[in-house]
Amino acid sequence: MSRSPQADTAARARQYWLMKSEPDEASIDTLAERGTLPWTGVRNYQARNFMRDAMRIGDGVLFYHSSCPQPGIAGLAEVSSQPYPDPTQFDPKSDYYDAASRQDEPRWMLVDVRFAGKSPLISLADLRAHEELADMVVLRRGNRLSITPVTPAEWRFITTRLMR
DNA sequence: GCCAACGTTGGC
DNA sequence: GCCAACGTTGGC
Q1: Residue A142: which nucleotide is closest by CA–C1'?
Q2: Which of A13, A19, A104, A119 is at 20 to 30 A from A32, Cα to Cα?
Q3: pLDDT confidence band for A5 (50 / 70 / 90)
């Protein structure tokens, strides 16, 4: 099956994601200092599949602080690499070591994420207060996924209405 | 610290 | 392939 030259070169529309990080491990300030971070430690297949199969360089990221005194969106980032194997899976000293993963067939893939700006914290209560965001995946009851898709409308609302 | 919700494991 | 038990997530 051949594809047109346009299909090979045309960028797909930018997509958007929300990525949870525990600020004790990596906060928006950590990302601001370092510029980019490898998104290590994801050990959930659905979240891995988003990074491995769906993300593209330049996709927008809502950087979310979780498991902390003030959970919420703390800033913006963007996907800045192709997927590649998470090195921590091969490191026996890492909390994220996976003895069952093989070098020649890595189980866990990640992307790098680049800092794109800090925002005043947008709390869960703030997010839930807006009808426009009622269907956000991250707000769904029982949701535990550390990476969730964000619709263009949700992205627009958050970045243009809640972040100014 | 509690606990709801969900994913993974492993016996059968 | 079922499903109970167990572990983890993550807000409160």
Answers
A1: B5
A2: A13
A3: low
| Cα A24 from Cα A9, distance rounded (Å) | 40
Q: List the nucleotides on chain B closer than 7 A to a protein CB.
A: 4-8
Residue A106 in 3-state DSSP?
coil
Spatial neighbors of A156 by CB under 8 A, at least 6 apart, are none
For residue A142, what pLDDT is reported?
A: 87
A146 touches strand C (CB under 7 A): yes
Instruction: Count CB neighbours of A101 within 10 A.
Output: 14
N-terminal to C-terminal alpha carbon distance within chain A = 47
Nucleic acid strand B within 7 Å of A49 CB: no
Tokens for A32, please give them: 């601001």
Q: What is the pLDDT of residue A81?
A: 98
| Strand C atom within 7 Å of A48 CB | no
A141 touches strand B (CB under 7 A): yes
CA→C1' distance for A68 and C1 (Å)? 39
Q: What is the pLDDT of residues A24-43, one digit of tens each?
A: 999 999 999 999 999 999 99
